[in-house]
Amino acid sequence: RSFGNRSRIIMRGGLFVAGFIRVITGGMFSGKSQELICQIDKARASGNPVDVCYPRIAERQSPRDIQGRVMAMDDQSGVQLFALGTDEFSFGTIRHKLLSEIIAIDEAQFFSPHIVDVVKKWRHEGRCVLIAGLDMDYLEQPFGSMGDLMCLADDVVKLHATCSSCHDKPAFISHRVSPSLHQVEIGETNYVALCLECHRKLCSGDRQRKEEYGALRETARHPS
Ligand SMILES: [Zn+2]
Fold first, then answer.
1. Transmembrane region positions (predicted)?
2. 151 CB contacts (<8 Å, ≥6 apart)?
3. For residue 77, what pLDDT is reported?
């Protein structure tokens, strides 16, 4: 594998270029997986096989998941799904598993930091990598390796949901409604997408929660 075989990627409108990395990011409910599936479908339709991978821990078998969306595609030819362990990018075997010239990764924030080196290697092999994932956790801290992946990317698309409270402004906060304080709390029912104003209103109505958030943000910023 080298850049020499770049012609194996069929380009259409400059969308899928050898060695190109695109990151699709944003908060919860912002349409990242929807955008990723559109690109997967365009790649497939232009004759490129696509390997689609996602972390097994995020598998909920819901129609909104990437595997649900792939299953719902009218034509799935050339598209292969891979559920991976979160540390699977640390194993050399990953490169024998995913062989397509176009690789799509969903929920990339859950993978271990080794994902960054693997994506770099794929770039130098002339593969095109499409990555979707949450930019921040509920404490507004960069999530997993998404920050590094955005730096590597040739193109970054940031999407925003509409606030689920006022249904008007763009949502910048993935507000957690469940009481858990772990960074990873999987499940869309645990979150709502809020604009800054609605988030402020909600937090000022819940003083204890506000203090909890403040303390957590501090420890996340200055880990002991
Ligand atoms: Zn709002």
1. 9-29
2. none
3. 92
Determine if residue 185 is labeled as part of a ligand binding site: yes
Rounded alpha-carbon distances, angstroms, from residue 4 to 9, 19, 102, 130, 155? 11, 12, 16, 21, 23
Query: Domain map of the chain by residue range?
Result: 3-159, 173-221
Whole-complex ipTM: 0.99
Token look-up 């972390």 returns 55
Flag whether 119 is marked binding: no
CA of 206 to the centre of ligand 1 (A): 17
Instruction: Check if the beta carbon of residue 22 is closer than 8 Å to that of residue 129.
Output: yes
Report how far ligand 1's centroid is from the alpha carbon of 150 (Å).
Answer: 27
pLDDT band of 140, cuts 50, 70, 90: confident
Residue 156 labelled as part of a binding site:
no
Assign a CATH topology to domain 3-159: Rossmann fold (3.40.50)
What's the mean pLDDT when you consider all of the chain?
85
